[in-house]
Amino acid sequence: MIPAAFDYVRVDSADAAVAQLVTHGEDAKLLAGGHSLLPLLKLRLASPSVLVDIGRVKDLSYIRDAGDHIAIGALTRHRDVEISEMLKQHVSLLALAAGEVGDNQVRHRGTIGGSIAHGDPASDLPATVLALGGSFVVKGPKGERTIAASDFFQGFLTTALAADELLTEIRVPKITGAKVSFQKFNRRAQDWAIVGVAAWKLGAKSGVGLVNMGSTPIRASTVESAVASGASAADAAAHAADGCEPPADLNASVEYRQHLARVLVRRALEECA
Amino acid sequence: MTINGQTHSHDVEPRTLLVHFIRENCGLTGTNVGCDTSSCGACTIHMNGESVKSCTVLAVQADGQALTTIEGLAKDGVLHPMQEAFRQNHALQCGYCTPGMVMAAIGLLDENPHPTEREVRLGLEGNLCRCTGYHNIVKAVLAAASN
Ligand SMILES: Cc1cc2nc3c(=O)[nH]c(=O)nc-3n(C[C@H](O)[C@H](O)[C@H](O)COP(=O)(O)OP(=O)(O)OC[C@H]3O[C@@H](n4cnc5c(N)ncnc54)[C@H](O)[C@@H]3O)c2cc1C
Ligand code: FES
Ligand code: FES
Question: What are the residue ranges of helices labelled H in chain A?
């Protein structure tokens, strides 16, 4: 399958990307790794008239120690997140989750910024950054603003990013020494999770994110409060599906997804014990 | 861009997929297309030394980059060690997935020269073999790793 025709513009800076978005408005789409966008274009589920290629904006590809958090450039590839020694030391959950995205070839091209901006509740990284209490730096024509992950994911494939804004940086607080677990349940290799769980625990503090359990990535705050008040993994996990309205599809019914969430959260918390 | 060390330059529409550029504009038909959904890996090539699915890259994104396809592996009529390992271990049946498997397998060993069997299986999860000859493919990759 071949995408519908579009104009192609390659930019070499974040400012140039924003300028293109301002010029072309809603007709333009940013192209990062292309591993969510190109499959949609090939199936003609999307047909923007202009693609603004930010794939070569080199200064948006980095992983930096910023004191209490690690700052990751939006154009950093999944593979670089997966193998980063700095992340393995301070936020190993994110490196672990990046290693679960798709397959080797996908991880060589796909970027963390593309995954976050796409905002797919079935993707691994949005729920992970949410569980970590991360935040996002975005740049628009009026300058920069920072959005907490908890305010960013607003609906199915819908985020707080405006059409003329670019995501530039992902910030994740350090949880050095935390125990972490990433549980991904699927039936086929390389596939998205039917249900996934990203969890970390450091003393009485914990974070639990759910993949594919609603129209957005979800933070299981009832589970986190149960953990904080000393509940066992099994007792805390019993709340995993509280308030979730997961989708039903060929792979799983609503009830089955709720069951999976409880089982996978229990396994994750046991691994973090 | 260069493909297997040779410069290729063609005017194409922005929507041209890299795999079609390689096959149709450059006439290198070893790289296959096996799906519409970025799943099968038959189109795997190397871009700047890393395995990528060329059906999910635009030709314009590869502008100026160094690519290697299956045709670029054998040197002076001598098969690349991975090709030879596939041959010795009967790691192909119909052969459709083979170019992509070989490219993915070489990429895998570049990143992890001594993988366990499980790591090989995980490392090749982006490549499907419809003849389901996975067992011998894994054997071939392990053999190539131990040589
Ligand atoms: C075969 C296959 C299997 C996969 N399996 C998984 C999986 O198991 N788990 C998983 O989580 N993901 C999976 N993915 C998706 C993969 O993670 C994508 O790489 C990622 O979701 C998108 O990143 P990208 O850089 O490719 O973005 P693109 O496809 O380039 O862009 C995606 C969207 O985000 C926008 N965008 C990109 N960058 C920015 C930015 N900096 N600022 C604002 N908007 C931006 C684009 O305009 C577009 O709308 C898979 C993909 C494939 C092809
Ligand atoms: S043709 Fe590229 S993954 Fe199937
Ligand atoms: S040998 Fe036939 S598809 Fe793999």
Answer: 14-24, 37-42, 78-83, 85-90, 92-98, 104-109, 112-118, 124-131, 149-152, 221-228, 233-237, 254-272
- Which pTM value belongs to this model? 0.96
Mean pLDDT of A245-273: 96
Statement: residue A1 has pLDDT above 90: no
Give me the domain span that covers residue A38: 7-53
Cβ of A101 less than 6 Å from ligand 1: yes
B37 vs A: CB within 8 A: yes
* Whether residue A49 sits in one domain with residue A101: no
**ipTM confidence score:** 0.96
Q: Is the CB of B93 under 6 A from ligand 3?
A: yes
Q: Determine the pLDDT at residue A92.
A: 98
Within a domain: residue A58?
no
Domains, chain B: 2-72 (3.10.20.30), 81-146 (1.10.150.120)
Alpha carbon distance, N-terminus to C-terminus of chain A? 48
Question: Residue A222 is encoded by which pair of tokens?
Answer: 């009832």
